[in-house]
Amino acid sequence: MHEPYRIKIVESIPRVSPASRRKALVAADYNTFHLDASSVEIDLISDSGTGAMSSDQWSAIAAAREDFSGQDAHARFVAAGREIFGFEHIQPVHQGRGAENLLFRLLLERGDSALSNTFFETTRANIEALECRAHDLPDESPPFSGNIDIRRLQRTLNEDRRVKLIVITLTNNVNGGQPVSLENLIRTRELADEHGVLLALDASRFAGNAALIKQLTGSRRSVKKIAREFFDLSHLAFLSCKKDGLVNIGGVIAFNDRSLIRPLSHEIIRQESYPSAGGLAARDLVAMAVGLSEAVDDRVVLDHVAKVRFLADELLSRGVEVFEPVGAHGVVIEPPSDLKHAPHALAAAIYLEGAVRVGVFEHSVRLAIPRRVYTRDHLTHVADVVDRARRRKPIILNCVHNPDEFFNFFARFKPAPGPGR
Ligand SMILES: Cc1ncc(COP(=O)(O)O)c(C=O)c1O
User: Fold this and answer.
1) Chain segment 144-166, per-residue pLDDT in tens
2) Which of 33, 38, 18 is nearest to 413 (CA)?
3) Distance CA 153, CA 155 (A)
4) For residue 242, which atom of ligand 1 is closest to its CA?
5) CATH of the domain at 115
6) CATH code for position 407
7) How would residue 1 be classed by pLDDT, with cut points 50, 70 and 90?
């Protein structure tokens, strides 16, 4: 299948010499998150907020009127949200973690518990900031390796009377976006109802999840229809639109419970802006409205999922071990050595080899693919760079700054003295 778009504006890629890469990596203390992005040729550190917008999005942006409240853009955004998510109330927020912060203050009290297939790290941090507990209960059996473990969920619900919330992350961010099955969501909703607990979706990659369900089950239903089935199974959803929503900034809280409207609006006034703006400009709201409708276009999302598979196949054909089954937004590779800080060392080696930036996620390296940005030629080049980098003698890193939270983002390293690095 070819890409379902053609390219109208291009951005040139800088050439970064080997000497400049070495200098940039030292300045970044061997953590690719600290690199100057202008020293990167191909950037696969995140698929969040890094996608390309369409000409329809840009023309809606240019036409949007910037008003303080009652914006046309808000009405358009709400209509798009209702159509896709099926909830009555569609609240814009400035990004996913803004939604988490606003919602959890309303849904949780100190000492409560929340359960998940796997919490994204900001989701967990926002729960723990309220002195609540966040438990991951992943199942991980393929092909729906993003599922929550139903047996452990049932047991935890029986044992812990303080569980108030189940959050299912779609796709499960760990390991490049593993899908959750509809059956798993149906069973989760049944258990949530039995125990009087809310079921919320962290739906930041909802279209990828629906696309993988479509592929894995051979369904003829559209991505939009499948996605609607899992929204219908939940009490509410929150999402960052910086991923499948195809925008560079923005997010949504979607719900039916009217009693949430007043406290949520008050929190938004206190922290963000007028509720119809949700901390965004009107141009951001229309970009989200158009982006969400493109997100559920089968061709758009299936093309993205196919590109992720393409990169995995390119790596596999060169003998690089990738995490299988491959997810919807990125390819995960294990470092070839078990030395301490081996994932950061591999990310550093890949950067040195070809100015390709990848991210360290948990204990592995993730090549996240920004939507509609890179061609298959770019990805073939990335596979060559990774292959050459992993054949070199591993870099040994010593940690010189060990933050007590968010290690992957903020750690700093120095290479152990040795030849060649
Ligand atoms: C699954 C998931 N939830 C929430 C977030 C937070 O969203 P944002 O970056 O828009 O704050 C992310 C960000 O990567 C994510 O991957």
Assistant:
1) 999 999 999 999 999 999 999 99
2) 33
3) 5
4) 10
5) 3.40.640.10
6) 3.90.1150.10
7) confident
The best mutation among 122, 126, 366, 369 to test binding of ligand 1, ranked by most ligand atoms within 8 Å of the C-beta, falls on: 122
**Structural domain boundaries, residue 322:** 18-47+298-415
Task: Indicate if 278 and 357 belong to the same structural domain.
Answer: no
- Strand order, beta sheet including 133-136: 89-93, 251-255, 236-240, 198-202, 163-169, 113-116, 133-136
- Return the DSSP state at 249: S
CA 96 to ligand 1 centroid distance, Å: 5
Same domain, 310 and 409: yes
Ligand 1 pocket residues where CB is under 6 Å: 48, 95-97, 120, 122-123, 169, 173, 202, 204, 240, 242, 251
Q: What is the pLDDT of residues 189-226, one digit of tens each?
A: 999 999 999 999 999 999 999 999 999 999 999 999 99
Residue 263 burial (CB count, 10 A): 12
29 phi/psi in degrees, rounded to 5? 50, 40
36 and 69, same structural domain?
Answer: no
Are both 183 and 101 inside the same structural domain? Answer: yes
Cα 10 to averaged position of ligand 1 atoms, centre (Å): 27
Section 368-385 average pLDDT: 98
Which of residues 274, 295, 316 is at a domain's end?
Answer: 295
Q: Kind of pairing, strands 163-169 and 113-116?
A: parallel
Of 47, 166, 149, 160, nearest in space to 111 by CA? 160
Token reading at 315: 């790596």
57 CA distance to ligand 1 centroid (A)?
22
Cα dihedral sign for 75, 79, 81, 87? positive
Please tell me the total count of domains within the chain: 2
If asked whether residues 186 and 286 sit together in one domain, one would say yes
pTM over 0.85: yes
Find the 121 Cα to ligand 1 centroid distance in Å. 8
- Whether 139 and 178 map to the same domain: the answer is yes
Residue of the CA atom closest to atom 8 of ligand 1 = 96
